[in-house]
Amino acid sequence: MAAGDPLALARMTLLLPTRRAARAVSEAFLRVAEGDALLLPRMFALADLDEEAGIAASASLPTAIERLDRTLQLARLVVSAGDQFAATPEQALKLAQSLSGLIDEVQTEGIDFAKLAELAPEEFAGHWQETLKFLRIVTEVWPAHLEEEGLVDPVHRRILALEARREAWARNPPADPVIAAGFVNADPALSDLIGVITRLPRGVLVLPGLDLDLDNEAWDAIEPTHPQFGLKALIGRIGIDRDQVRPWSDVDAVELSRTGRARLLAEALRPAETTERWRTMARPPQDALDGLALLECETAGEEAEAIALAMRRTLESPGRTAALVTPDRGLARRVAAALRRWGVEVDDSAGRPLSETPVGIFLELVIQAAVTDFAPRPLLALLKHPMAACGREPEALRRLARSLERAALRGPRPAPGLEGLATALGRVEARAFDGGPAEKDELLGWVADLAQRVRPLTKIIAAKGGTLADLVLAHGEAAEALAETPRVAGPFRLWRGQDGEAAAELLAKLAGPASAAFPALAADAYLAALGLLMSGITIRPLYGAHPRLSIWGLIEARLQQADLTILSGLNEGVWPPLPGDEPWMSRPMRAKFGLPPLETRIGLAAQDFLLAASGPDVLLTRAKRAEGAPTVRARFLSRLETMLGAFGLSIPRAEAAMFTAWAEAIDRPQAIQPCRPPLPKPPLRARPRKLSVTAVETWMRDPYALYARHILKLRPLDPIDSDPGAAERGNFIHEALHRFISEAGANLDERDLLAAGRAVFGEAIAHPSVAAFWWPRFERIARWFLEAFERPRRRAGITPLATEVPGSLELAGPGGPFTLTAKADRIDRLSDGSLSILDYKTGRVPKTDEVSWGLAPQLPLEAAIAEFGGFAGVPRGETAELTFLKLTGGNPPGEIFSALGGIDIHDEVRAARDGLLRLIMLFDNPATPYPAKPRPEHARGGDYDHLARIGEWAPDTSEDLA
Question: How far is it, in rounded angstroms, from Cα 18 to Cα 551?
């Protein structure tokens, strides 16, 4: 059409479906010009509802209401309709967004809302009558509001612009060419404009993928799920018969080579009523399958890895391009992440929701931490976010956050709020910090500073919320204060970049006049509403992506091509998508109202599949399982395989299988060599010279665990914000019995024991699990302890000497003196003057064999300390009784076990002490290693098994050790 005239293109007008299509056409012109200067046609994206049509920007057209303003104002109307429709602001916003979609769809199809009343007879549709009452928001209230404000809906504004251009061209047809290209369906207003274009003197309509070879019987049988449904409806609306459409005459060899593939796919997807023609059709030519491959993976993760490898392989051929086409956003993100293995950033046309960008996540974390009273997990998530700085360098803040985590946020939750956190920090001993008192003081000062920075939020939360504008301003102020560094002010750091600018624009609108339309709300409702609004804002990267790799959605792929096209996510419910649900009308009601059937989504997806799969090199992929559940192959693939199977053909799979093989091999080493068991041999000066009786048991069962704890000084971390666990329960019971026995004297009153328990449990008794389980169990323990144990012992003349009493015994070893320490739960004097040593067990009780074999030497070693007078306040004496008192509060609440049964205690005490001396002598030899689990049959799971890599070198015993 340009005929060599360099100015001819500039005089043309090109109408395209989307902005990305316009960009693709621009790039195509530049490729054809081979880099020469070129004046491009005027290009407009007509079907992009996020932009005005741009071809009739007349001052006479009314102004369109901002979409955010519309959502907020509709939400206010939903709230005013009563809480039977929306109980929370978040629900009101969701309903408002749904109403916005209904308004757009009805206006797009040119339907009058007045027809709603005709859809169901009043006497048979009570539920529908209630729905109609609610829909008065959009049928009566909303139009009146827009008229009062002098505004129109965005879709209405677009329709008016299209109508204005249509009328202008009808009155004064342009002499220069006007081309509409790339439309596979069109709404009435757009169809009317396209119809005018076809009647212009130099008007051209280019219809991608219109099947001119489909027989008339099949053409007449086309339904909404068929790929030609949208095109059939379009040419029908503009009054063109399919016989009037002519093939584009200027096609190159590549396009001609696609004809066989396109015909094959069209036959496979023909209407179901006419598939009997498969019996009489000619055998498909082999070249129709050339360049086509199918890859069926076991999981979505494997699929993403294989796709990334296929795209990476494309880069090995200079100038070759590859594009992934999929509606599955999760799969697209996985592929993009997999490509980063090779430092490749890929352009994802769908972008990311603002709520998933760094700034969006940071804003949500700020309000979430405040709403949850700065609970450990939300607080740590906020402090460890890259955007957080709190007036310090980010690296310094991370150091403080880690120190705070170890000191106060692991284990049971501190009291609510930053004040409770400061109180919990104050209770921690200074020696627990690596930096000593200075680090503790620094942390306390920082927590106080943090409280000042978030005060705007905590103040409004304490007031039970406020207006949307107040919440937005408080939120923004706190976020800026938390993002501040010594060199960059918070606003400059927070609101920069694409996501920062988008977030700033959103908050500015929410704090502006639009917020007046929204009711007051609590902070947690504000968090939900903000997340909902941010999820509707898309951020697309402007630069930095690889020039030869792309990820496209279905719409973006319609007018673009790549050397290798990968169609992925070909499962039912993904591609094609589910038809979806209509919250306002049933399918018959939609049809009577004049709205297109929901199944048209499937037809559009089928058309997108047909167009994309007709490329020169196409890889089809799907996962057999998704999120652990089996998937169903897309109907497109099933149809194609069924038709090909009738001719003894199938979609080639062999070449594509190499990508899964590569994906499996990429992280697999050439040889797997299990590590050997660790045998650390620290020097004698590093070996411990002081151990408790419980550590001696660890020394015997698992020397490596002793090495890790006492030589490497490694301590297992408690879970973050954990419920009080078995260790805390044992400590509470031990301490309560200690207080009671120490203070009760001869008065064994159950009320006194329960009072001691309440004092020890303290604030923990308010925890749900403690109140529901532990405290009732403690009450049963208290009753059993007094009735079945303590009172009978007192009557037998047994008296307590000491509880929770420390003791020690010094032993000689080759490396010097060795000190054995212990804290006996309780030591009693028997009626004959000998000693009884008791150990309270709230968990597992050692078996008699374990004690006699020396595998559980705690009580015999405590008896050895007692024989030498090693316990403070306890006279030296022989031990006649070693007893475990099992206290669970279950059924029964308690049990009494003799540690040695009928075995002679004196012999066992002597054997335990001699065994310890041999152990000291053995490990005082620097050549003696600290092995892990030297006797697996006696080993238990421990805190250091992962460091010893037990599962790697001892796989047969790993389950026993767990």
Answer: 16
Q: Is residue 319 part of a domain?
A: yes
Q: Which residue has the higher pLDDT, 431 or 527?
A: 527
> Which phi-psi region, left, alpha or beta, contains residue 34 (left: φ > 0; alpha: ψ -120 to 50)?
left
Does 527 share its domain with 556?
no
Same domain, 505 and 581: no
Domain membership of residue 762 (yes or no) is: yes
In a domain, 898, yes or no: yes
Instruction: Please answer whether residues 433 and 403 qualify as being in contact, where contact means their C-beta atoms are separated by less than 8 angstroms.
Output: yes
Domains of the chain: total: 4
User: Out of 221-225, 258-262, 770-774, 780-784, which region has the weakest mean confidence (pLDDT)?
Assistant: 258-262
DSSP conformation letters of 319-360: T--EEEE-S-HHHHHHHHHHHGGGT---EETT-EEGGGSHHH
Phi-psi region of 217 (alpha: psi -120 to 50; beta: other; left: phi over 0): alpha
Q: Which residue has the tokens 């030497």?
A: 857
**Cβ neighbours of 265 (radius 10 Å):** 25
Pairing of strands 879-887, 63-64: unpaired
Q: How high is the pLDDT of residue 957?
A: 46
Banded model confidence at residue 495, pLDDT cuts 50, 70, 90: very high
Find which of 226-235, 428-437, 648-657 is predicted with most confidence, using mean pLDDT. 226-235
Residue after which a domain boundary falls, among 110, 128, 152: 152
Own/partner contacts of 485-492, CB < 8 Å, gap of 24 or more, are 485/389, 485/391, 485/392, 485/393, 485/394, 486/391, 486/392, 486/393
367 and 317 inside one domain: no
pTM: 0.85
Average the pLDDT over 573-601 and give the result: 88
Hey, which bits of 475-616 come out as E strands? 538-539, 549-552, 564-567
What are 388-439's pLDDT values in tens digits?
999 999 999 999 999 999 999 998 888 899 999 999 999 888 888 888 899 9
Q: Does 526 share its domain with 399? A: yes
pLDDT at residue 47 tops 60: no
Eight-state DSSP code of residue 633:
B
Q: How confident is the model at residue 930 (pLDDT cuts 50, 70, 90)?
A: very high
Same domain, 455 and 501: yes
Calculate what percentage of the chain has a pLDDT beyond 70.
95
State both tokens at 908: 């066992």
Longest dimension (CA), the chain: 123
Bridge partners of 13, per DSSP, are 42, 178
The amino acid at 726: A
Tokens linked to 652: 């080639």
Question: Does 165 map to a domain?
Answer: no
- Can you say how many angstroms the Cα of residue 694 is from the centroid of all Cα atoms in its chain? 42
Distance, CA of 778 to CA of 794 (rounded, Å): 22
d(CA 845, CA 833): 27
Per-position b or e across 892-929, b if 16+ CB within 10 A of its CB: ebbbebebbeeeebeebbebbbebbeebbeebbeeeeb
> To which H or E segment does residue 35 belong?
none
Residue 577: strand pairing partners? 573
Mean pLDDT score across all residues of the chain? 89
Mean pLDDT, residues 857-863 taken together: 95
We report the CATH number of the domain holding residue 717 as: 3.90.320
Element (H, E) at 512: none
323: nearest Cα among 338, 337, 302, 307: 307
Residues 309 and 388 in one domain: no
Can you tell me the distance from the alpha carbon of 323 to that of 331, in angstroms, rounded to the nearest whole number? 14
Q: How far is CA 85 from CA 144, 188, 959, in A?
A: 22, 33, 54
Gap between the Cα atoms of 525 and 466, Å rounded: 11
Cβ neighbours, 10 Å, residue 118 = 9
Is residue 131 within 8 A of residue 584, CB to CB? The reply is: yes
Give Cα 934 distance to the centre of its chain: 42
Residues 696 and 820 in one domain: yes
Instruction: Tell me the residue range of the domain where 643 lies.
Output: 295-351+543-665
